[in-house]
Design brief:
With 124 residues, this protein is an all-alpha fold. The protein contains three helices and no strands. It is elongated.
Amino acid sequence: MSYADSVGTRIRRFVADSFGVRGSKNLTSWMLAGGLAYYFIYLPEQRRAQEIQAAREAAKRLAVAKGIADIDRSRPIPDPQDTGLIKGIKAVREQQQKQQESQQLQQQQQVGLQQQDQQQEQQQ
């Protein structure tokens, strides 16, 4: 194998063609863009994350000092209500079942009232 056909050259050409790097000016522009992105995007995000972490630690120290360090972070148990937001097919089916049961109960009550009325009429 000659130098032009070596594995290293093939790899370098593949990488250069994949990333669009052709020539030293293009490589320099990619390096400059990467450096600018590092200083203007990555570093500020890292600093912001460190500030947030420091604020959380300070809040935790303050909570320990006040004696409220054991903060319950679990989500509250929702209050099951007959009306309100319905999510999911299970909730929809449960609501439909409740409606059917209430309709059946109303029908039974109506039938019971009609029977009572008939009995009262027969007694008179």
